[in-house]
Amino acid sequence: MSVASPFRPVSRQSLSESVYLQLKDRIVRRELTAGASLPSERELSEALGVNRGAVREAIKRLQQSRLIAVRQGGNHVVLDYLDEAGLELLPSLLLDKRGRVSGAAVRSIMAMRSALAPDIAAAAAEHGGAILAAELQALLKQMRAADSDVGALQNHCFEFWKALVAASDNIAFRLAFNSMQRTYRQVWGLLTRVMEAEFRDLAGLGRIVRAVAAGDAEAARTAGRRHVEIGRRALERTLDTSTGEGA
Amino acid sequence: MSVASPFRPVSRQSLSESVYLQLKDRIVRRELTAGASLPSERELSEALGVNRGAVREAIKRLQQSRLIAVRQGGNHVVLDYLDEAGLELLPSLLLDKRGRVSGAAVRSIMAMRSALAPDIAAAAAEHGGAILAAELQALLKQMRAADSDVGALQNHCFEFWKALVAASDNIAFRLAFNSMQRTYRQVWGLLTRVMEAEFRDLAGLGRIVRAVAAGDAEAARTAGRRHVEIGRRALERTLDTSTGEGA
DNA sequence: GTGGTCATCTTATCATACCAGTTGGGGCGA
DNA sequence: TCGCCCCAACTGGTATGATAAGATGACCAC
Lengths: 247, 247
Known about the structure:
Strand content of chain A: under 5%
Shape of chain A: elongated
Oligomer: homodimer
CATH topology of the largest domain in chain A: Four Helix Bundle (Hemerythrin (Met), subunit A)
Radius of gyration of chain A: 21 Å
Order of helices and strands of chain A: HHHEEHHHHHHHHHH
Number of domains of chain A: 2
Helix content of chain A: 55-70%
Structural class of chain A: mainly alpha
CATH class of the largest domain in chain A: Mainly Alpha
Largest sheet of chain A: 2 strands, antiparallel
CATH superfamily of the largest domain in chain A: GntR ligand-binding domain-like
């Protein structure tokens, strides 16, 4: 999944998509401050040179993201995304307007990963059983074979955790994992280098597999924590030495 | 905030809102299976008796929630929300079609809370300082005064954690907290009774305050874990004795 | 089997109405 | 002068028409 390819799918974004992205960025960058009113739909459609329907579709998506509040008869008002928005907004906060990675956002998501991973591993060990252990074992075998290709290891590592999350029998973990994964994807290439040490920690993944096979939740928790701390520390070191990095 | 009142605001939901909710429910309940095609927009607008614009706005919101994939010229196809949707979907999974609480969803969200709360407390202790400690101390004082009213304690308890999360200096924690909070709100009244023991654990909150004041992250982590485990265990006991509960 | 053409689906966009709720200011009465 | 009410001018919400353009599968020539 998501193998690097010389071809990239051409992306045509619809008008409402463009409008949505533009407004979302202006809200996230605080150019439109919380409490302020948006221009009316008619003004927006004229200013942006698009149909009012396109504006309305974008507005509906902003409302869905809890970036604005809608009241019939009055203007749409901008909300404070720190108080209202959900985890889905995280990908939008990772890169600033010049495409540079936000160190604070990276630290945040890595902290969340460190908080969840041990419990995910523990839950998987509790519910996964022999079937999960076999699946993980097979993945680990593939990783040992792909030892030279860090990008492949990274993909396999992701699949490993995806399997753990799916087996954790926890819908919240699973949905949060999806949200976080979409954040990673934006800087997937950067992480390949920075977190290489974690992707090569097959011994740590092996400990998780053995804990799952044994149904030992505590051992899985410890092994999971040790494993993700490798990448976290590596990333902290990188952030400490370079204040910012181009994507 | 969110005080019980004999009056509830009349909810007039727009057509597109109705369409969105109806389609979302059918997808979440697996009546529309992953991979299946949605009827065309014109068919939907005719079948539901609304204009195409309303259907289109609903479709855009489903796309935003990653419940469907949109391609011009082809039918919209339903995605597997377990693989695609984000944490924002959690509130939709808490109640089944008859309004009963899903035990699995409750256990899931409580597990996630238990995973995040210790690290939130630790991060807050690291970054909060004396200002946060004073704020928490004031909240705690209010709670001691409101000792007889469990509902008030519940609200204060929420404010307590909201302050911790805001001070944690972690955008991911904050956004995830918002998402989870919207899930709780649906069963806020039920939780008042079930988690009463946690809301009355002022000693535990006091330990967190002292750890924050001392800047002791590890103490805050331990105190946070102990505190939320109270509610979690209480909820587990309730779920174990009663298989389901009406809302 | 490979590639091209075409009819016919679909969504995407546009334009223009009109309905419904909010707001604010001006006029009226006390 | 003060307070109230009403109306005009906003706002978003709904409805319906048309045109453009992508997706798809049947079909055919090579």
